[in-house]
Amino acid sequence: MALLAFSLFSLSGGLSAQSVVNWYGNTNNSAAYGVTVTGSYSPGTWQDTMVAHATPASNFGSLDNMQANWNSPLGSNRQAILMTFGNLGLSGGDFITNAQLHTNFLSAGAATNQDTWHVFGLNTPLNENTVTWNSIGATLDAAWAGGLVPGNPNYFSTFSTVGLAGSDGENFSINVTSALQAYKAGTISTLALINFSNVPVGPGSAERLGFYTSEAVTVANQPGLAVTVSPVPEPGSALLLGAASSLALLRRRRPASRLVGRVLA
To answer: Is CB count within 10 Å lower at the N or C end of the chain?
Structure first.
């Protein structure tokens, strides 16, 4: 029976192929984040920037940093980090099992951070050189008003900056698996990172987050995505495994049937 199951497995070509780790970013700086790439590297499709409620007509696409909930002289901390990654180059049979956004801090606020940050998606394509709060802020305003909360299809996850030093050069990874699955499926086209606090922040506040962008002069500081991809097993493979399991189960049951026969006799 074991031989039959093995034969079925072999005929199917194996029930699952090897998972690979792909790297996405404007440069292949995966080694700077301690990531070993076993799959492909896709360059040149990354866009990242921020928008600010305090200066709603401003575009920040040329900056080497992006900030969320930064202190503002106008008393508004409504700022969001926005990112898009272009074509991931994955087929319909490729399943994202893990996605980590690797970033390098410009700052994370005070030395003891007590912030929970939110990852959600926008259906509006991102152009980092033209986007402003005026062009995209209606959706962000809805987020601050409570429209994007757990349970909303465009709300994906949270991450914490508690205990981080918040100094330049500190690497940090954010789990964006569910958001990137939606991105691959075309449900969303842009990722946004925000904190829902409405309290104006000041210098040294922990309620802020800053990353270097893909425009950073130091290549090691540029952000990137490490995406673990596993091919989905072919339907025939699953059927073969089911057949092997059923045969094995029948074989286990036979001795019990003979025992019952002897007792009845």
So the answer is: C
Residue ranges covered by each domain of the chain? 17-232, 237-264
What counts of helices (H) and strands (E) characterise the chain? 4, 12
Answer whether residue 87 shows pLDDT above 60.
yes
Position 34 pLDDT exceeds 70:
yes
Return the DSSP state at 149.
-
CB 78 within 8 A of CB 175: no
0.85 surpassed by pTM: no
Token pair in block for residue 72: 């503002």
Confidence of residue 204 (pLDDT cuts 50, 70, 90): very low
Q: What is the pLDDT of residues 166-198, one digit of tens each?
A: 556 688 899 999 999 999 999 999 999 887 655
Q: Are 69 and 201 in contact (CB under 8 A)?
A: yes
Shortest CA distance to 232 belongs to which of 94, 99, 97, 98?
Answer: 94
Average of per-residue pLDDT values in the chain? 76
Cβ neighbours of 251 (radius 10 Å): 12
In sequence order, what are the residues at sequence separation of 6 or more whose Cβ sits closer than 8 angstroms to the Cβ of residue 247? 1, 4, 5
Q: Are 184 and 96 in contact (CB under 8 A)?
A: yes
Got the DSSP string for 62-123? T-SEEEES---TTS---EEEEEE-------TTEEEEEEEEEEEEEE-SSSS---EEEEEEES
Sheet containing 155-160, strands listed edge to edge, beginning at the edge strand earlier in sequence:
47-52, 79-84, 190-194, 116-122, 155-160
Six token digits for residue 253: 């049951």
